[in-house]
Amino acid sequence: MSTVTSADGTTIGFDAYGQGRPLIIIDGATAHRAVNPTNAQVGELLSDEFRTYAYDRRGRGESTDTAPYAIQREIEDIAALIEDAGQPAILFGWSSGCLLALDAAAAGLPIAGLVLFEPPVVVDDVRPPLPSDYVEQLDAFVAEGRRDKAAELFMTAAVGMPAEAVAGMKQSPYWAPLEEIAHTIAYDGRIMGTTMSGNPLPTDRWAGVKVPVLVLYGDQTWPALSAGAQAVGAALPTATVRAIPGADHSAEAATLAPVLREFADLT
What residue range is the signal peptide (predicted)? Predict the structure, then answer.
């Protein structure tokens, strides 16, 4: 593992694979290197041509955290990784990591292009919107030491799992690592803002994004997310939208690597 130090002193842990054009992979809510091996697999497949960064977002895995949280701090974390790379990077975001990647580009970081896999955007009534007090509920549960309730709220309100399915999940090995980083779920809630409200996307939030953008969605994903990908593509003048055959809200490294290579060749 390597580390960089963010502007506020937070240590960001990462693994880097290969040499060449920098590619920084930004996980979505709850994911980090210990539970998501796909980023490392992508890095290995692209190691002949890219230096791929798989990192733990602050508060997760082997990265530290510094209160109070602000989205700007996560943008600074990405800036520290780009500085380590020494040249403009392509950012690949998973789910809410897509929105963080867009925010980083809008903030003017040296970014060559963005690849966004299923941004969490709900612009219609095909599924219930997030509760308007979603972040406040998450913060309250964490403050009360009830991380299990924060994780439950994420799985039911954000992911859309039935309560009985979550009850079963609590008996699996997946649950303890989820509770461990449950305090960071509210971070992603802040990053999402109103994007899962069922209303149109804000027109000004990413107006500063001028780099090429590729928005991806799985052709087997939930209808809300495919519609959301189309909405993000329509909101960004430099964006192209593409379906990934056989994928849902995840995709295999062997499927993603050639798509990323092709995109990089065009930027």
Answer: none
Structure tokens at 7: 């502007």
Spatial separation of the C-alpha atoms in residues 222 and 217, rounded to whole Å:
10
Q: Distance between CA 249 and CA 217 in Å, rounded?
A: 8
Q: What is the pLDDT of residues 250-261, one digit of tens each?
A: 999 999 999 999
138: its two tokens: 């998450």
Total Cβ atoms within 10 A of residue 167: 11
% helix, strand, coil for the chain, step of 5: 40, 20, 40
- What are 202-227's pLDDT values in tens digits? 989 999 999 999 999 999 999 999 99
Distance in angstroms (rounded) separating the CA atoms of residues 51 and 61: 21
Cα(53)–Cα(155) distance, integer angstroms: 27
Distance CA 43, CA 50 (A): 8
Fold for domain 2-123+198-266?
Answer: Rossmann fold (3.40.50)
| Predicted structure pTM score | 0.97
d(CA 118, CA 139): 25
CB neighbour burial string for 37-53, b if at least 16 within 10 angstroms, e if fewer: ebbbbbbebbeebbbbb
Contacts of 92 (CB under 8 A, 6+ apart): 23, 24, 25, 26, 42, 101, 114, 115, 116, 117, 256, 260
Domain coordinates in residue numbering, the chain? 2-123+198-266, 134-191
